[in-house]
Protein 1
Amino acid sequence: MPTELTKAIVTGYTDYRDEDRMLTLFSAQRGRIDCKARNCRKPTSKLLSCAQPFVFGEFELFISSDRVTVNACDVRETFYPLREDADRFMTASVCTQLVNSVIEREAPDEALFSLLYHVLSFLAYTDSDPQDLLIAFLLHYLDHAGYRPSLTRCAVCRRDVRGDDVLFYSAEAGGAVCAGCPHGGKPVSKLALEAMRRILMLEHEELKRVVLKPELRAELLPILRASCKRALGENDKGAALLEQFA
Ligand SMILES: [Zn+2]
């Protein structure tokens, strides 16, 4: 029988029938995998512990011509503390939904996998503020998706704006815009632009070091929300969840 082992994170699920679940898995090597986990909601099911959001494990998949089914899973990490804190759970849900918006079947993506894995770990096992981790995730996610905001140059005229005192941020233009260029953006502080530059310089394993003041969080979240909406489109589920939550 064609079975395959793959390490993956559960990034989404939909219940069907009484005891079954459709899982969305994100594998660094295979990209998105939509698969059935039969009877996984039975209390005695061997799949009970793996058919949960955020679980990382080695999945044994049965692959037939028209569907993929989970046979078994060696659970490596449940990120259990996420289930005990509503803010951390919601932040993790936003991150996994945003990942689901961009992953595709048979499209390996080690960098995005590493970003998600690290942010889930820090949300579960560190005292880092979940909003700081969300901001760090969003910046690296946008960068990865090809929407890195312009932070040192005006997104319209490309002039170096690091010496400018008055600047704006426009998601439509793609980042910071100088006072001389037309834009539909809002004023942005130099501190916010500098914070974004520094966060983008960090490796994924360093993102737990991001510590922002409340006023900076309040400035950055709407900016990044607008940029995600711009990148993914109005009707995207991940962008909508981000809008509701943050
Ligand atoms: Zn300009």
Protein 2
Amino acid sequence: MKKIGNFFRNFMQGRNGTDDLAKVVLWIAIACYLLSLLTKQPGLYMLGIAGIAYALYRCMSKDIMNRSAENRRFQKFLSLQKLKWEQRKDYKIFACKRCGRTIRVPKKKGKIEVTCPTCGHKSIHRT
Ligand SMILES: [Zn+2]
């Protein structure tokens, strides 16, 4: 049993391993696969298999720099969605199209021009 553990440890050395993005992709893929068994939809089956393959590819990848960058972008996206959901009644939250900074404006102010405090990019938003 110890030998198998050592083999696995050596095999995973220098590889990305599981991260948040791989876990979410894997769960969605498993859900698609199970749904395909119930609905007999070949598209869902293919999506499930492709998702599982992508999650495995992420775990086994040796290009840790790029996988980490993708995972960070995914985590940033998730936290922005969470913030939008939590403050959906009072604020409209969006990312600056030029620099990506998160901008929050009060709701129900009509059409307003918003200037990004970081890069100065101006954009029109309906609130
Ligand atoms: Zn900006």
